[in-house]
């Protein structure tokens, strides 16, 4: 199912519900039928999401150090997109909403 986040400060952001649930969980919110992120919640939400992205990048870099591409006995496998890639549109929306002092809503 697609979840659409809306904000007066920028274009809508749509994502699958499992990603929306994950990102909202990082910032301390729950995915319900309807929800809102208020301007007062935006600063802490941005900080939590940026910290999670930094941690994910560090863990991925450590994994890349153990990557055996092209070695005998190791088959090619694709590395899935990281949190930074998947969260960027939502993080951009959080920043735009903070700049404009706007709510972010979903389920309306």
Automatic annotation (TrEMBL):
InterPro entries found in the cross-reference section: DUF1840
Pfam families (UniProt xref): DUF1840
Name by which UniProt lists this protein: DUF1840 domain-containing protein
Natural source organism: Paraburkholderia sejongensis
């Amino acid at each position: 199912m697609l979840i659409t986040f809306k904000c007066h400060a920028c274009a809508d952001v749509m994502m699958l519900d499992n990603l929306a649930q994950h990102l909202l969980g990082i910032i301390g919110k729950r995915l319900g039928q309807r929800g809102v992120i208020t301007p007062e919640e935006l600063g802490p939400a941005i900080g939590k999401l940026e910290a999670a992205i930094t941690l994910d990048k560090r863990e991925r870099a450590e994994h890349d150090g153990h990557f055996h591409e092209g070695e005998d006995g190791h088959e090619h496998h694709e590395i899935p997109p990281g949190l930074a890639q998947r969260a960027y549109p939502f993080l951009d929306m959080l920043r735009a909403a903070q700049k404009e002092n706007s709510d972010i809503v979903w389920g309306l």
